[in-house]
Amino acid sequence: xxxxxxxxxxxxxxxxxxxxxxxxxxxxxxxxxxxxxxxxxxxxxxxxxxxxxxxxxxxxxxxxxxxxxxxxxxxxxxxxxxxxxxxxxxxxxxxxxxxxxxxxxxxxxxxxxxxxxxxxxxxxxxxxxxxxxxxxxxxxxxxxxxxxxxxxxxxxxxxxxxxxxxxxxxxxxxxxxxxxxxxxxxxxxxxxxxxxxxxxxxxxxxxxxxxx
Length: 212
Description:
Helix content: over 70%
Largest sheet: none
Mean pLDDT: 87
Distance between the termini: 56 Å
């Protein structure tokens, strides 16, 4: 968080700095071992600022997840999708969700929750409900509307919404989480989003028995 030290920050910049510092410390020390003092040491400032903004350590962790989901779900806001067809909507949602998944903050959160989920099941539930679960529910609503318009023909929109999210959180995301490769570049994100949306909406056009 050195980029923020010694600078006069706006409220929004301060919040971002705190969340980034928290994600890093949660990953490095684990949720249980992380203290507010450790986060303050990383980002600077006062403990009162964090408590007034986030309440406690669990509130801070939940805010990390919720803000990531907010960024992705903005693509599915009613005012955003009014002039788009389903393909355009899915593509923009895919772009934003991949960007969230690949952000340093969310990579830190994901690593921390995977390590702590069994010890803190209530935290794991909050992570799922505020993040992946919330995104899948909203996407399912968008798909239901498309189904009513006759754009798609599916039986269970919630099931396919979960499957779409799973396609985006793929082996490349796992490689990043494991530190085997850096996060996707903007061009790689675009290529991945377009490929997944194409497969999701059009399929692989498999033709059984078709000769080479």
